[in-house]
Amino acid sequence: MAGQSQTVRQITVPTAYAGTLSSLGVAVSDFCGVYARTKDSAAGAQVDTPAWQAPSEGGLYKSTFAAEFLRRKVEKEGVAWAISGYAAGSTTIAYFAPGAEGDVRLRAVLDHIKAFEEFYWHQGGDDAGDGTTYAAYKTALTQVFSDAASQNQRGTNFKKAVTTMATRTSAGRGTTAQVQAIRTAGLDWSSENGAVYAEPHDIDLVDSVHQGQAGNIVLAHHVFRVFNGNDNGPTLGAGTRSGNTITIPVTLPAGATALAITGNPGSRFHVFPAGTTANAVAVSAVAYDEGEQAMKLTLAAAPANDVALDVYFCRHPDPSQSAYGSMIRDDRMEDGLPVGRNLEPATVNGVAAVAAPGGEEPAEPAPEPLPVGARILLNTYHSQRNASEPSFFAGSAAAGWNSLNARANNSASARLPLTSSDGVATPVKAHAEYSTGRGGSTTLTGSVVPNDVLQTNMFISRTAAASYAASTSARVRITDLPAGTQWKVDVLASAQGTGVRNQTIAIGSDTRVVDVMNNTGISATFDGVTPDSGEIAVAFTQVDAEQFAYLTAVILTRVG
User: Fold this and answer.
1) What is d(CA 111, CA 113) in angstroms, rounded to the nearest whole number?
2) pLDDT above 70: residue 425
3) Considering only CA atoms, which of 70, 61, 47, 57 is closest in space to residue 20?
4) Nearest-angstrom CA–CA distance, 120 and 162
5) 3-state SS, one letter per residue, for 212-260
6) Weakest mean pLDDT among 220-229, 334-343, 445-454, 522-531
7) Are 531 and 511 in contact (CB under 8 A)?
8) 196-197 and 391-394 strand pairing
9) Statement: the pTM of the whole predicted model exceeds 0.85
10) For the residues of 364-408, what is the DSSP string, one character each?
11) What is the pLDDT, as a whole number, of residue 521?
12) What is the share, in percent, of the chain residues with pLDDT greater than 90?
């Protein structure tokens, strides 16, 4: 086995950890051993010189995981079993790349044992925190397992299993998107390479990411099932909603007859309007209907009938360090373990409202917020008070809108949500950014709706005068645009001073040089622009002379 600090604690544990083999009732088989090396900053968790020993409270390998896993393996298979490997805390998967320190140390251990029948990889938290991409993590997994196989006298004849992250609370490194990217990479790589992916969310933690001795026992049960039978639990299907009740059918694995709900697993469900992860809808109760073989989620409030919902189970972050007591499991315990298999982590997209028997029909779908022909105007405003104090306006002051001011040389960031007259905003946001000669940059952001106006000072200059911010470039980013749409983008620019002529306006690699002094209308038109990951960015750069130029307006019209 190999990985980072969670794997370290599967081999041995810090001195400060509560719970021992004897106090937790974990027996040690007479027919097991451990030969492993660890690197960890926690006192008592580092094994510099590996030696063959059985798990024990006074030896090198104090983890309840090692003792519990090995005892069950010996009892199940009737032969001696051992754990071997290398783990290092606070490391990314690149630490185990061919020739890197982790790879060299793991190879040394594998050279000593010569052969192995199972390889378990438990690592990914630091990659989530560092923003490692989905593709990069999958590529690195291939390298890790290929390198391990090259050190195995059995070659590729071994079982493979991957856990990137088990229980993980919000204090752990990485955003939800970053955590999910690494988890998805591990899941997809496993399915493509004959490995088993395990993501247990019922492991009790001692902090935001590390399992304690009690959690080690539960983790040992999961890994035991992964390699001896399976750890696959029930799965969720496509759901429907009537009022404030969501019904999601459950597929039970062979041998299971029901679900058992313990604690309060409602907090493990996250519900959002479809296509977003904002404006969460609270879940007030969770139940299993045996007759319908379906989960029933009761929402604290019923959204409008035309609102489709996305439902997540065990989406990052987990709600608590105490994870074991709040879970949904099936009733399969044929292997003698104390509980069944967990309900599999899942995303149920687009749960639609349906008419309840005798109830009202769903309302007609709401009109698309940005239909073909919709226009978004971002109109810049040059403040005459001081060029280093850009103004940020929504609509016009006469209409009662407020403004936010941020000093350019303070690298300030401001957010002003804009709403239409009926109070309904689209997901679209506009970001005005510009670099300054005073060593900072400013980003001002607002949500926009069709035909509303976002105004921000997009003044740029090549002057060295101390009274000006001396920006030489500016950019407007329009984000959260609907996928699959196409837009015509009209850009207007202007200038002050006879020496200012050529400026560049660019969207992606499409760059135009415009003469802003002689401009009497649209400076540049970009047709059929498709948002890149929901974003269109317009860049404006000063080229000629040390004078002043302005990005006057950006107009987006949906054309497809």
Assistant:
1) 6
2) no
3) 57
4) 6
5) CHHHHHHHHHHHHHHHCCCCCCCEECCCEEECCEEEEEEECCCCCCCEE
6) 445-454
7) no
8) unpaired
9) no
10) PPPPPSS-TT-EEEEE----SS-TTS-EEEES-GGGT--EEE--G
11) 55
12) 59
CB 510 within 8 A of CB 500: no
Tokens (6 digits) for 527: 């047709």
Using CA atoms, how far residue 434 sits from 59, 258, 536, in Å, is 60, 59, 16
Contacts of 548 (CB under 8 A, 6+ apart): 459, 460, 461, 463, 468, 495, 496, 497, 500
CB 208 within 8 A of CB 262: no
| Cβ neighbour number for residue 107 with a 10 Å cutoff | 17
Instruction: Look at residue 410 in the predicted model and tell me its pLDDT.
Output: 25
Residue pair 369/426 in contact (Cβ under 8 Å)? The answer is: yes
Which phi and psi angles does 343 have, rounded to 5°? Answer: -60, 130
Tokens of 364: 């007609």
Residues 292, 294, 298, 301, CA torsion sign: negative
DSSP 398-465: GGT--EEE--GGGT-EEEEE---TTS---S-EEEEEEE-TTS-EEEEEEE--TT-EEEE--EEE----
- Three-state DSSP class for 24? coil
Which range has the worst mean pLDDT, 14-28, 266-280, 520-534? 520-534
Other residues' Cβ atoms within 10 Å of the Cβ of residue 269: 23
Per-residue CA distances from 529 to 106, 134, 226, 373, 488 (Å) = 50, 27, 48, 14, 6
What does each C-alpha distance from 393 to 87, 112, 399, 493 come to in angstroms? 54, 68, 11, 19
Contact 310, 272 (CB under 8 A): yes
Given a cut of 60, whether residue 438 has pLDDT beyond it is no
Q: Please choose, from the candidates 146, 80, 85, 160, the residue with its C-alpha nearest in 3D space to the C-alpha of residue 117.
A: 160
Tokens of 309: 């919902």
Lowest mean pLDDT among 282-291, 371-380, 436-445: 436-445
Average pLDDT over every residue of 146-155: 97
Tokens of 85: 């490997």
> How would residue 550 be classed by pLDDT, with cut points 50, 70 and 90?
low
Confidence of residue 480 (pLDDT cuts 50, 70, 90): confident
